[in-house]
C-alpha cells in the first residue's frame, strides 16, 4: 500500500477526529469526503470501506476514555476503598451510574442490530447523508428555540433513568448517516431540560460502548472481505482519528455552552446546500 493511499486514511482520520463529537455528523463528513474525492472503495471494496468508516471511530473512543478516565473509573467501580471514602464525603450523593448509561444504550442498540444490514446497504451515500444533515439541523434548531426556559439538569450526575431512556430513544435517529449521534442526543437532552454541557457529557460517555459495539459488529460481519494489505490503512486512520479527537473534544466542551446548537445547524444546512450544488 503506497504513501498516497495511507495519506487518504490519515485525511479520513482527521475528518473523523475533528467532527465525531461536534453535532455535525462525522460519518456524514467521511462519506462526503470519501465519495467525492478519496474513493477508498476502489482499493478496499465497498464493505471494507464502510467498515473503515465505522471502525475508525475506535480512535475517537480511545480519546474519550482518556479525557473522561476518572468518570469511567467511577462507573466501573474501580476506585480504591480510600478514594471511594474520600469521594463520598466530598462529592454530591447523587451520581451518574453505569445503569444510567446502559438504559440510554438499549434503544439504539436494539434498532441498530435489527436494521444494520439495511443501513449498510442503502444509507451510506451522499444523497442520504445530505437528507440527514438537513433534518438533523432542523431538529437542533427546534431544540435550541423550544428548550425549557429554566435548565433543570446542570450536571450529568443529575440525569434520571427516565431522561437517560428518553435520550437513548432519540439517539436512534443517529443511525441514519448524516443525522449525527451527538447532534441528536445533545438536542434531545436540551429539550428534556439539560444544560448543553450536561447533555454533551452524557453523549460522550454513551459513545464509548455504542461505538465500540458497532465497530466490532461491522468487523465481524465483513471479516471475510479483509486482507493484510488493508491493515495499514486502518491503523493510519485509527491513529489520526485518536490524535485529532483528543485535540478537539476539550475545545468542543468549552464551546457548546457558549454558542449552543444553532451555529452548528446553520453550518450543516450550508454544507448540504454546497455539496448538493457541487455533486448533483
Tell me about this structure.
By secondary structure, the protein is mainly alpha-helical. It contains 14 helices and no strands. Helix 5 packs across helix 12, helix 8 packs parallel to helix 10 and helix 8 crosses helix 12. The protein starts with a helix and ends with a helix.
What descriptors fit this protein?
mainly alpha, 76% helix
Per-chain topology:
Blueprint: H1 3-19, H2 26-38, H3 41-44, H4 46-55, H5 57-67, H6 69-75, H7 81-90, H8 98-122, H9 126-146, H10 161-171, H11 181-191, H12 196-221, H13 231-259, H14 262-279
Strand content: under 5%
E-strand count:
0
Helix-and-strand structural type: mainly alpha
Radius of gyration: 19 Å
The ordered string of helix (H) and strand (E) elements is HHHHHHHHHHHHHH
Oligomer: single chain
How many strands, which pairing sense, and closed or not: the largest β-sheet? Answer: none
What would the principal axes of the Cα set say about the shape? globular
Low-confidence stretches: none
For the terminal residues, how far apart are their CA atoms? 32 Å
Mean pLDDT: 90
Number of helices: 14
Task: Give a quick summary of the entry.
The chain has helices at residues 3-19, 26-38, 41-44, 46-55, 57-67, 69-75, 81-90, 98-122, 126-146, 161-171, 181-191, 196-221, 231-259, 262-279. It has 280 residues and is mostly helical.
Amino acid at each position: 500500500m503506497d504513501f498516497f493511499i495511507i495519506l487518504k486514511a490519515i485525511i479520513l482520520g482527521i475528518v473523523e477526529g475533528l467532527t465525531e463529537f461536534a453535532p455535525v455528523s462525522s460519518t456524514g463528513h467521511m462519506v462526503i469526503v470519501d465519495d467525492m474525492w478519496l474513493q477508498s472503495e476502489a482499493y478496499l471494496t465497498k464493505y471494507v470501506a464502510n467498515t473503515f468508516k465505522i471502525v475508525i471511530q475506535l480512535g475517537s473512543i480511545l480519546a474519550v476514555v482518556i479525557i473522561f478516565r476518572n468518570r469511567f473509573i467511577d462507573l466501573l467501580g474501580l476506585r480504591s476503598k480510600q478514594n471511594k471514602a474520600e469521594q463520598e464525603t466530598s462529592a454530591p450523593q447523587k451520581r451518574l451510574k453505569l445503569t444510567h448509561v446502559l438504559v440510554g444504550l438499549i434503544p439504539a442498540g436494539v434498532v441498530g442490530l435489527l436494521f444494520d444490514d439495511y443501513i449498510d446497504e442503502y444509507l451510506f451515500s451522499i444523497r442520504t447523508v445530505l437528507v440527514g444533515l438537513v433534518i438533523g439541523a432542523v431538529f437542533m434548531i427546534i431544540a435550541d428555540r423550544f428548550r425549557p426556559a429554566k435548565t433543570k439538569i446542570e450536571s450529568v450526575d443529575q440525569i434520571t433513568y427516565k431522561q437517560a431512556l428518553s435520550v437513548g430513544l432519540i439517539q436512534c435517529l443517529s443511525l441514519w448517516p448524516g443525522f449525527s449521534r451527538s447532534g441528536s442526543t445533545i438536542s434531545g437532552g436540551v429539550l428534556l431540560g439539560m444544560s448543553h454541557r450536561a447533555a454533551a457529557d452524557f453523549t460522550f460517555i454513551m459513545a464509548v460502548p455504542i461505538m465500540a459495539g458497532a465497530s466490532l459488529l461491522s468487523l465481524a460481519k465483513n471479516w471475510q472481505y479483509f486482507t493484510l494489505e488493508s491493515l495499514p490503512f486502518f491503523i493510519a486512520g485509527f491513529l489520526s482519528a485518536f490524535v485529532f479527537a483528543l485535540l478537539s473534544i476539550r475545545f468542543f466542551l468549552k464551546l457548546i455552552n457558549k454558542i449552543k446548537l444553532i451555529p452548528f445547524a446553520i453550518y450543516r444546512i450550508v454544507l448540504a446546500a454546497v455539496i448538493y450544488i457541487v455533486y448533483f
